[in-house]
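Bump. Still looking for Aminopeptidase structure tokens.
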Amino acid sequence: MRDPRMQKLAENLVGYSINVQPGENVLIDMIGSERELAKCLVEEVAKRGGRPFVETSDRSVLRTMLMNATEEQIKLWASFDLKRMESMQGYIAIRSGDNINSLADVPSDKMSLYDKHYRHPIHSEQRVKHTKWVVLRYPNSSMAQLANMSTEAFEDFYFDVCNLDYAKMDRAMDPLEALMKKTNRVRIVAPGTDLTFSIKGIGASKCAGERNIPDGEVFSCPARESVQGTIAYNSPSVYSGVTFENIRFTFKDGKIVEASSNNTEKLNEILDMDEGARYIGEFSLGFNPYILHPMKDILFDEKIAGSLHFTPGQAYEETDNGNRSAVHWDLVLIQRPEYGGGEVYFDDVLIRKDGLFVLPELEGLNPENLK
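Sorry for the wait, here they are.
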């Protein structure tokens, strides 16, 4: 018998997040060994008259492929999968697996080829820009370990987060989205951080369960050369299977001119992947009331209540500053008191302090009003 929470999640993903219509092709991309949610999604897409297609893969197999891949092979592989993606109107990714570090020892030159010739054209350019898409994790024991929870407790947490009333959250986001659209200068202050930039004319976009599950953010993007100052992120982050901690960037005229972390050499290799990787492609405020602590999973961590992320690399079309890169790396700074606190100012007006919105019109996004 199917877990009713799983069925509800599948209904929300198919009916709300990507709103499948009759005749639409939907690719269900399952990474890992779990199958129950994939089955539920196939059934829900079919119920709505869509046509489900399923891809299953394994990170350990991908590691072996990349270790032995040539540039010509990756380009040919990408050409097959790009043609398939071009045939899809919808995309649902379920990311699972037993080890988030499966790709940690793939050489940088191989990962660079994969990012440039496979991930960027298929996902950043085609899937993100031309399909209705949503990406989520699966609540397995590996994720529970990352969250320092039992598997059973993590499942309860997961379904609270993922089956949140996102329609209610969507309405509460409207004042913040409107404020960001008319804001010029942003200042971010926290321990080790004093950063300024402009978002004038860039726009803003709210995220309430239509792209990521879990969700809970409103994003914009700095004008490309406007970023000045330093940011010290306080959440660990995994990129291509490598865990980075204590990342610190210094900016001059928009460009990252100094970068350090627990693995400074590897960090700079990523930032040197292309010219756009040292510029910022996204600025976002996160406020999912159930997500409080980092677990080295960006789909959760970027939505942490009282957080923001400031993202090197590719900009989104909705809030485009013109930056282009094979990198899009959401790095998180939490500003709640237990993480050192901090302030966010829009045009010299304090809008959030220690992770809580202080303007009356934004208080609907504070945790007690979203649960």
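Residues 166-369 form one domain.

Edit: fixed formatting.
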